[in-house]
Amino acid sequence: MSPEEKLDPIPDSFILQPPVFHPVVPYVTTIFGGLHAGKMVMLQAVVPLDAHRFQVDFQCGCSLCPRPDIAFHFNPRFHTTKPHVICNTLHGGRWQREARWPHLALQKGSSFLILFLFGNEEVKVSVNGQHFLHFRYRLPLSHVDTLGIFGDILVEAVGFLNISPFVEGSREYPAGHPFLLMSPRLEVPCSQALPQGLWPGQVIIVRALVLQEPKHFTLSLRDQASRAPVTLRASFTDRTLAWISPWGQKKLISAPFLFYPQRFFEVLLLCQEGGLKLALNGQGLGATSVNQQALEQLRELRISGSVQLYCVHS
Prior knowledge:
Binds lactose. May participate in the apoptosis of adipocytes. It is found in: Nucleus. Keywords: Apoptosis, Lectin, Nucleus, Repeat. Residues 27-161, 190-314 form the Galectin domain. The protein is mainly β. Helices cover 2% and strands 48% of the residues. The model has no long low-confidence stretch (mean pLDDT 89). It has two domains: 13-161, Jelly Rolls, CATH 2.60.120; 188-313, Sandwich (Jelly Rolls), CATH 2.60.120. The chain is elongated.
């Protein structure tokens, strides 16, 4: 892409903030577009052996003086005989009534994955895939535009995602598949086995960052004979996203083109009877028809193109 070229306008709902890896704590960052129902924040981290406490604050601004309101304060404490979590709201410089949750599911010296799922009236929190607490908003969620992380915590990654639109494949919490942090990272092209094929309810997840001067991004599902009955391709030359048939026919997908250099994206494919549903950055984009026998005979997920992979799950 030349410097003179302009990016096509993209609706805010289609834009995902790139993940952050190994930030130094205390860490404060703007949440692109603020918080709204349907947003999900994922925290991958380690609790140090000598940890006393840490906190994750969803703030209404980032000023130092006066201190900003905190709509949701999540504060695990390890220094007592019974480790627990305190949740609260700071409004006008004053803390409100605190809520306490015992039986903290975090251990000193251990890694963890926390999901914060923001709904219309409350935030739900899961720890390592298990529901831990829910907290009803005391300030409007729309006022939140800043994330702050403080205290005794070694942060590995912070991800900003949208909740999956697939009702058929949903559970109380989506599977918070972690970002790949350690070397070697997934090489591109990447191949992942599908030993049992694809069955209704199964979801494929791909998260990646578009590289500089990209050419294409291609996701294909192949059978034992290496035929590809399903291919999804983003072409950077003509800015199109399309399904490609085994015979090379292109079926354009009506959606904003998101695959620009240094843009983070998430592809979800939900297997259902007779085909696959597609979502890009949490936005449903319809389906493509594939007969069930062909889905069951798939044996490989293959990804190629000008991307850096952060997560591949099938």
